[in-house]
Amino acid sequence: NTAMAAQMTDAHRRFLQVLMSHGIMEGSEARKLHRCCCEIHKVYYAHDKLDDFIGTVNSHLQPLFMQIRKGISENDGRAHYALVNLAETEITKMASDYTENELELFRKTMDLIISSENGFASSTDILNLADQLKTKKMKKKEAEQVLKVFVEDKWLSERNGEYTLHTRCIIEMEQYILSNYQDMARKCNICRSLAVQSQVCESCGIGMHLPCVRKYFKAQTEPRCPQCNDFWSYDI
């Protein structure tokens, strides 16, 4: 006797449209949008009911194999909401937007990022891969342009010539990454979601997101690994 899904209203539709055009939204933006949509369409608004509101949208997206998912930014630990295509998890979603050799460059970049110690790959290392592509080699200039597009489209983010996976990419591809990089992909020991940018215990090898590390060690007099209790040797 599953309860009937709550009605989709114009407020829900507007929320979905705006989120679709952004691809991903920071939590505070999503909360503002929630309020704004309810006010415009004179729908009941409760500031602490965003997740229920999104739940209603999700129940109507289910037959379309879409879902609004919540994820955490690895940089600052803030919540983000992204619209995820469940039917085309993996990289198929990208296949309609990019050429084969661009996709290959993305995959190779992802390999570098996930196998790295800290979750970053340098532009030098990525550009060195451009002329080794099997599909069709890329000149450095062209590869630089493609990386720029991946950043604009929120698959990668870049800081001082170092690339990592954008929060949107992690929310969309978490399952793909966990199943395709089983020996390399780590879950955060604290929040249990995929940790790309992380600190890794030198003794037992568990990883933790930087925001989770900061939160966890705030309460500890001396930073020790939650798994093996060895001293945590990183700056926090």
Q: What would the keywords be for this entry?
A:
single chain; 236 residues; alpha+beta; Arc Repressor Mutant, subunit A; Herpes Virus-1; 3 domains; three-stranded antiparallel beta sheet; 9 helices; 10 strands; 16% strand
What does this protein look like?
Helix 1 (10-22) packs antiparallel against helix 2. Helices cover 44% and strands 16% of the residues. The mean pLDDT is 90. Strand 9 (198-200) and strand 10 (207-209) form a beta hairpin. The longest helix is centred in the middle third of the chain and has 16 residues, at 100-115. The protein is of the alpha+beta class and 236 residues long.
In the CATH hierarchy, what is the architecture of the largest domain at level 2? Orthogonal Bundle
* Strand line-up in the sheet with most strands: 1-3-2
Q: What is the helix fraction of residues, given as a range?
A: 40-55%
Radius of gyration: 20 Å
Mean pLDDT: 90
**Main sheet summary:** 3 strands, antiparallel
Proportion of strand residues? 15-25%
Would you state the CATH class of the largest domain? Answer: Mainly Alpha
Low-confidence spans: none
Distance between the termini: 49 Å
Gross morphology is globular
CATH H level of the largest domain: which superfamily?
Winged helix-like DNA-binding domain superfamily/Winged helix DNA-binding domain
The count of β-strands is 10
**Structure annotation, total helices:** 9
Classify the fold: give the CATH topology of the largest domain. Answer: Arc Repressor Mutant, subunit A
Total discrete domains: 3
- Secondary-structure element string: HEHHEEHHEHHEEHEEEEH
Q: What structural class do you assign from the helix and strand content? A: alpha+beta
